[in-house]
Write the structure tokens for this entry.
Amino acid sequence: MRLQINPDKLMVYGARLIAILWVVFWTGFALTSSLGKEGRPANVLMQVAVPGPFFVLILFLAWRTEALAGLLLFLMGVFIAVAFPFTSGHLPVNALVFVVLTMALPPLAAGTMFLIDWRMKKPRIA
């Protein structure tokens, strides 16, 4: 049995994959870092429950409306890339670059891919 690949959907599938990996990574990171602090179970739950619904909403939008999800992901990536260096204090440059790349680059890439795909499929008004 051959796997049927729709070439019109490859960019959307790639953007969804990037968004899923980004959400899973940061949700797992929040869970493991809160467990590592040896805090109370309520604190561990709050570390995951606060950003969790927001991430789930973004993934839901990525399956329903690619344009809105693309815009949200792109704006989120720009916000993280601009705001994190100002709020991080005095981190070394290599740590700052690593965190900005892992936090801002995936939503920027996925959002750009969603928006490009949406623009390519949008009928042109002449």
Observations:
- DSSP finds five helices and no strands in the chain.
- The mean pLDDT is 85.
- The radius of gyration is 17 Å.
- Residues 93-121 form the longest helix (29 residues).
